[in-house]
C-alpha cells in the first residue's frame, strides 16, 4: 500500500557500552576464527553486548527517548509506538507490556512494523508514531561455536509523521512497501523453545533464500513506483553479511556504494539494524529532500521485504 505525506522526523540508536571485537572472540573465548575473514567476508569488526541490568526493553526505551529528544517534540504528542523484536524478555507477558505494541518477524521485524505503522497512520489511527527495533541476540548465541561472530545487541528508533498536505513537490513523502513470507525455509534459522536455547543456522540456506527473495521485493516496489535502480539515492539495508549485500546489490543493479553500512561497528543487530543504519545516515547528512530511499531486509521464517520512501 502506498502512503502519501509521510515524513521521517528523527532517528536514533542506542547500543550497549560493552564492545566485543573479533580479536576478543579469538583470544579470550579461544575460538578458532580468522578476524580478517570475519571483517572481509561478513563486514563485521566488532559488536556490542549487553551486560547485567540491560535488556531488550531497556535498549528500546533509550532509543525511543533519544528519537523524541532529537525531534524536539513532546512525548504526549506520540499517538502510536510499535516495537519490533525477536528477543523478548519473557514468553509472557509480551514485551509490548513493557514498551508498547510489538511485532515479531526476526530480522525483518522493523520493516514489517514500519509498514504497519504507516498503514495505521494512513487510515487516520495516528498522526505521529515511533517504530523501534531492539534485539539482544547475545543471549541466543553459543559463544563456543564459530558462528558466534554474527550478532550484536542494540536498538534503533524512528519518529514518523503523517501530514495531510503534500510537502517538497514531486513524489516527496510517498512510502510504499513490498513484504514477503514463506515457511518453506523454516529450519534455515531457528531458535528452539527453552530459556537457554541458542540459534541454529544453515548458512547456505539463509543466503540462498535472501539472495532470491530480496531482489524480487526490490524489483516489485521499484516497478510499482515507475523508477529504476539508477534512481535510488541510498539503500538502508538489514545487514547479515557484506557478501550477501554485495550479491543483492549486483542482482538489483544498485551500486554497492549507495548502501549505508553499520555492521562493521555493531554486527547484525537483527530488528535494530535498519533504524541504526538510518540514524547513522541522517546524522551524516546522507539523505536530502526528494531522495529515493530504499529499505531492504531478509529474516528467518523466511521473511523478506523492501520499501521505498521519497524523503521529505
UniProtKB/TrEMBL annotation:
<feature type="domain" description="Beta-ketoacyl-[acyl-carrier-protein] synthase III N-terminal">
    <location>
        <begin position="101"/>
        <end position="163"/>
    </location>
</feature>
<dbReference type="InterPro" id="IPR013747">
    <property type="entry name" value="ACP_syn_III_C"/>
</dbReference>
<feature type="domain" description="Beta-ketoacyl-[acyl-carrier-protein] synthase III C-terminal">
    <location>
        <begin position="222"/>
        <end position="308"/>
    </location>
</feature>
<keyword id="KW-0808">Transferase</keyword>
<dbReference type="GO" id="GO:0044550">
    <property type="term" value="P:secondary metabolite biosynthetic process"/>
</dbReference>
<protein>
    <submittedName>
        <fullName>3-oxoacyl-[acyl-carrier-protein] synthase-3</fullName>
    </submittedName>
</protein>
<keyword id="KW-0012">Acyltransferase</keyword>
<dbReference type="GO" id="GO:0006633">
    <property type="term" value="P:fatty acid biosynthetic process"/>
</dbReference>
<dbReference type="Pfam" id="PF08541">
    <property type="entry name" value="ACP_syn_III_C"/>
</dbReference>
<dbReference type="InterPro" id="IPR016039">
    <property type="entry name" value="Thiolase-like"/>
</dbReference>
<dbReference type="GO" id="GO:0004315">
    <property type="term" value="F:3-oxoacyl-[acyl-carrier-protein] synthase activity"/>
</dbReference>
<dbReference type="Pfam" id="PF08545">
    <property type="entry name" value="ACP_syn_III"/>
</dbReference>
<dbReference type="InterPro" id="IPR013751">
    <property type="entry name" value="ACP_syn_III_N"/>
</dbReference>
